[in-house]
Fold:
Amino acid sequence: MFADRAKIILISGKGGDGHVSFRREKYVPDGGPDGGDGGRGGDVIIKVDPGMNTLIDYRHKRKFAATAGQEGGKKNCRGKDGEDLILKVPEGTVIKEAESGKVIIDMSGNCREYKILSGGRGGLGNQHYATSTMQAPKYAQPGQPAKEVEVLLELKMIADVGLVGYPSVGKSSLIRCVTNAKPEVADYHFTTLTPHLGVVDMGDGNSFVMADIPGLIEGATEGSGLGLEFLRHIERNKVLIHVLDAAGTEGRDPLEDYRNINNELKKYGDKVASIPQVVAANKIDLIPEEPEAVDIDEDGELIYAPDPIERLTETLNAEGVKVFPISAVSGKGTKELINEVWEMLSAMPKQSNIFAAEYDPDNALKISNEPFTVSYDEAADEYVLEGPRIEKMLGYTNLDSEKGFVFFQNFLKDNGILEQLEELGIEDGDTVRMYGFSFDYYK
Ligand SMILES: Nc1nc2c(ncn2[C@@H]2O[C@H](COP(=O)(O)OP(=O)(O)OP(=O)(O)O)[C@@H](O)[C@H]2O)c(=O)[nH]1
Ligand SMILES: [Mg+2]
Structure:
C-alpha cells in the first residue's frame, strides 16, 4: 500500500540538569559552588529529502525522539549536548497537529527544513546562583523538559499537472510517452496502485511535473476503486489532463466516462472540480479509419457510427474544453497536447500552493525552568521555598489581592510545590516562608 499518511509522536531532548557541587581543594575547607551546566537537549528538525516519495518509513514506528542533554558535572564541567533528531520527509508533506488538525508546516516550495521542536535548554549549575547573601546555593537549574507533540504527516504531491480518467484508458502509457517516469502499463484495471511523478522537458530549461494517479471510477468519492485515497493529490494540480479511451475499446462511451469522472471530482470538492482540464482522446490508433457500419435503416442503407473524435471535439469544444486526439502508444498527437498544457501553465501565476501555518508547537509548549528548592528549616520549624522561580513569581504577584492569591495557589500546584511540601510532612497550620513572606498552610 502506498504510504501517504502517518501519525507519529515527536519528542525533543530534555535539557541536562545543572549540577550542584562545591569545590574541594587541599587547604580550602569550604570551597565555593562549582556545579557545571547541563547540556542542551536535541531539536526535532524536519527536512525535505528529494529522494523520498512515500511516508513508508513512518508506518511502523510511532515515536521519534531527539536525545537529552547530559547533566552538568562537578568542577564546572558542562554536560554534553543531546543529538538533534532529523526527520526526513518527501517534498509536499504537510505536517499537522494530530488532535486539532491545524497545519504546523507545509514542506514544499522554499521550505526545505523546519525546526518543529527545540530541545530543552540545559540548566545552569549552582555556581551561577552564588550571591553575596547566598554563597553556597544548594540548588541548580533543572534542564528544560522535553516537548512532545503528536503530528499527522500528509503527503500531497506537488505536480503541476495531474492525469485523471478511468482505469486502462492509457494514463500510465501517456506519462511513459512524455516523461522520464516509467510506471507499469497493462491491459487490466488498476494497474497503477500508487501515484508516479514524471518530468516533462520542454527544452530551454523549461519543464513541468506530471502525476499519474490510479484510475478513478464512479463512486470513487464513496470509496469505490482506489480513487478516493489519491484524489487528495490532485488538489494542488494546476491543470488536469482528462484521459479518455476515444476508441471505446472496453465498450464504454468516452463522453459518458468524461461526465462520470467530472461528477466524482465535483463530489470530492469545488477546489478539484474547478481545476482547468484538457481532454486527451487516447487510443486513436484503434479507431477504424473507415467509418464502421453499426446498423441498417429501413431502406437498406448502412448507418455509420459517428467518428468518435469528431463527436468528442464538437461536444466538448462547445463547453470550452479543448480535445487532443492522441495515441499514447505511438506518441501521435502528444506534442500538441503537451504544448497546450505548457501554455496554460505559463499563463498561470507562479506561486506554489502553500498551506498556511496555524500552530507552532514549539511556542505553545514553552515551559519555565527556573530552579527552586523546597526544604524544612528545623530551627525555625518552618518550611522554606527558595530559588529564582519563586523570587520571580513573587515579583509579579500581588499576594494581597484575591486574584493574586489564586494565581499563587495555582503556581504552587502546577510546579509540584504542594506535592513536595507534603512529602516533607507538612501539616495544616504549619508555616511556609519565602523571601520575607510567609503563609500558613491549609490543605
Ligand atoms: N493501441 C493502444 N493501446 C493503448 C494506448 N494507450 C494505452 N493502451 C493500452 O491500454 C492498456 C492500459 O494502459 P495503461 O497505460 O496501463 O492505462 P491506465 O490508464 O494507466 O490504467 P490504470 O493504471 O489501470 O488506471 C495497456 O494495455 C496499454 O498498452 C494507445 O494509445 N493505443
Ligand atoms: Mg496506470
Remarks:
- The two ends are 57 Å apart (CA to CA).
- Residues 165, 167-173, 185-187, 189-192, 214-215, 282-283, 285-286, 327-329 surround guanosine-5'-triphosphate (ligand 1) (CB under 6 Å).
